[in-house]
Recover the amino acids of this structure.
């Protein structure tokens, strides 16, 4: 039986699980590939306290320059070092498998150009336990993809679920996520939408062959959300989720990551806790939804090894979904300008509770061509969650002696330019006490 | 650019859609494979009234014996003729793609043996729009699969959904399904569980390398279900679904198709109408759920063409998930004897409403070692759904002058032998007025 020797760079939770799974499940891995896949060497910055039974080294070149090693599995994290590792592996004609979404968000097209036929696998880079890369590339490949909408970050979904189920506020739910190991000590990338954006960019390359960049798309996180928003959503039969969205209209692709209100009876709304799910609509296949673990050691290892096995089987699918350059397509897909994106919107305004305020606000919205669909007023006293956590207090000093209320409203469809313009003008009003908070309403149709 | 000529045998709803999609989406299909795929010829029994713009013939050999044809797509239906077509295609070294679950349920291992490296694709044979074959074979291949549980038949799921949402009885819901085109004029295979069983056998080959046969597994359909059963399920927080189930315990594989009560908050319980979904638990990846259209022309065409494209890309994955014979695995998986299967059970008994009946029934259950978890008594007068539709009336003549009631009960875990034995004995009681009806309760854990 043919043998493939693999070096694992980065022996943390995922790396350890990759090594153990290659050993534990060696029976089926050989039976399903016809190849013996051997975890030959682990590379780690510090080789103490590693619970694996293979040789370890601290020297990258022991893997990258070793002619006995056929394949490099990169599980280091970060952007620059892994990119250097990838380039060196490709230069030395070693297959390369990675779980690194951030590196691919920035460098996937450079790797595609540099690899010259050497296989690259990255199933584990998007939603650890969901084989969404292969689903898009191999399963749905006959379709023009009309949209991708997904819960792509387990940490933020856990926090949103806690806030929704227990009325916890953001800070409390975040602490719970950290205590349970769902959130890093520094959870910034998870919470500000960046991690989801990295994944969305990778999926867009597969579905649309588009070389979109992090800096060109709307990326918003889950900060700023308060229980009053969730209450409003529930009363209007919505759930609130952080979605990565790709939507194709004509030749324009609308890419964005932000909080959404979605119909509470939809499958996506049922995806709770640290789980992930991605809904894809193809022009022929209609809607499919793919649900599974978003992270975790053995879950991610499962995807890493599916790539190793694919390479062992000697498959030759294109790395980013397109064999020929996407330029050769009759219909070239371009990124839609952010301003043209349209949606329904939910807006939370904290305002002075005095006569005439609503009329001023409604007037500004009307000037921007925005019509209100529903409106609720709710008390916003000093004990409200928003105040406890000091969300962007603006003019609270000068308005101290007036009661404040929340105006919670939803709009009919309008453009991003309209809502952003209106919100900016509203924020300038003396009657508006803190920065307006907005969530887009996705009907999922 | 390399060219592949495809002949489509069977130009019905799916065949027409395959031809049209190959033409409509030719841009992305070429970009994603680097190959020009041409629908060259259609074969149909009757070539009148076909809405495709390619040459048609009624002679199979125009495709099978034509050296210009590289690939045969079989969309005929049935078992024997398609199997003969497959054998001839393989003999002539033409790649073979099929959507035919029945033929594969009986002949998949013969095809695997005969093909000698010629590619065979059958993504469309299981749950039309869900790429579950590729998910199992390529995405989850690092895992020992612990269980597969799925809603694999859209017609029966539509009927169950209607019964649940509108309290319709079985006959009415079936008629609705037929009016909407979800059910065939002869819906036998959909309703009696056979269609789901065919799909389950195919998935089991991929997941376990097991050559199980239709006649060796439990196959039950949705007939006999009445609104009282659904009411009981709702009151106990269950939904009723027809599931195909594969569960591995040690070296034994438990394969079966039957109605199940499942927790109403589970993702599977939310799968309504004609949609399909399959939950797979892998030892490393945990649970994943894959949801999409179960049938339909363009949905099935999407999967057929994903196979065509895979072959065009020249992939060499094993046909049934295992390269080497599954005998070479250390742990050979064997089919579990039906009798050893254990579960919780729901039982509906129609009985005479007279003192002492419950005691007699409880006594029989106790003798068989079955303990009751919950029990409800409900009126079963002449206007009940069961009576309207004459479900297995047995001794109604001799008991005419007594009121009858339903006893609806759920049991703790027991074996199939126990429940079947007890039900048989209960049916023999004069007090039991019709054949006992049973549904297994799956906790989905």
């Amino acid at each position: 039986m043919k043998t493939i020797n693999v070096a694992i760079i980065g022996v943390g939770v995922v790396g350890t699980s990759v090594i153990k799974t290659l050993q534990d499940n060696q029976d089926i891995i050989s039976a399903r590939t016809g190849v013996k896949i051997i975890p030959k060497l682990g590379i780690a910055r510090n080789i103490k306290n590693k619970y694996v039974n293979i040789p370890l080294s601290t020297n990258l070149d022991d893997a990258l320059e070793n002619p006995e090693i056929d394949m490099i599995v990169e599980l280091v994290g970060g952007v620059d070092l892994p990119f250097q590792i990838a380039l060196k592996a490709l230069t030395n004609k070693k297959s390369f498998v990675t779980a690194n979404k951030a590196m691919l968000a920035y460098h996937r097209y450079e790797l595609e150009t540099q690899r010259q036929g050497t296989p690259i696998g990255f199933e584990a880079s998007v939603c650890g336990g969901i084989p969404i890369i292969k689903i898009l590339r191999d399963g749905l490949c006959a379709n023009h993809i009309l949209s991708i909408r997904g819960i792509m970050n387990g940490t933020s979904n856990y926090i949103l679920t806690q806030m929704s189920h227990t009325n916890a506020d953001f800070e409390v739910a975040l602490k719970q996520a950290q205590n349970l190991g769902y959130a890093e000590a520094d959870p910034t990338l998870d919470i500000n939408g960046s991690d989801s954006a990295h994944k969305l960019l990778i999926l867009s390359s597969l579905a649309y062959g588009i070389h979109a960049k992090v800096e060109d798309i709307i990326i918003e996180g889950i900060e700023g959300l308060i229980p009053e928003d969730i209450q409003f959503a529930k009363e209007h039969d919505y759930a609130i989720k952080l979605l990565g969205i790709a939507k194709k209209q004509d030749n324009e692709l609308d890419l964005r990551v932000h909080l959404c209100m979605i119909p509470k009876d939809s499958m996506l709304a049922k995806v709770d806790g640290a789980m992930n799910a991605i809904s894809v609509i193809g022009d022929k296949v209609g809607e499919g939804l793919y649900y599974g673990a978003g992270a975790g050691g053995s879950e991610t290892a499962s995807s890493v090894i599916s790539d190793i096995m694919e390479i062992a089987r000697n498959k030759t699918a294109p790395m980013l979904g397109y064999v020929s350059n996407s330029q050769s397509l009759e219909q070239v897909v371009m990124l839609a300008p952010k301003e043209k994106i349209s949606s329904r919107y939910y807006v939370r305004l904290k305002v002075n509770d005095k006569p005439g305020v609503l009329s001023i606000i409604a007037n500004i919205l009307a000037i921007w061509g925005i019509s209100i669909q529903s409106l609720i007023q709710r008390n916003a006293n000093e004990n409200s969650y928003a105040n406890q956590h000091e969300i962007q207090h603006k003019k609270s000093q000068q308005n101290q002696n007036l009661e404040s209320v929340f105006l919670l409203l939803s709009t009919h469809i309008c453009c991003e330019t309209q809502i952003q313009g209106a919100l900016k003008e509203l924020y300038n009003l003396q009657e508006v006490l803190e920065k307006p908070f907005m969530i887009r309403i996705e009907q999922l149709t």
User: Anything to note?
Assistant: The CA atoms of residues 81 and 103 of chain A lie 9 Å apart. The two ends of chain A are 50 Å apart (CA to CA). Residues 326-331, 382-398 of chain A have pLDDT under 50 and may be disordered. The longest strand of chain A covers residues 238-249.
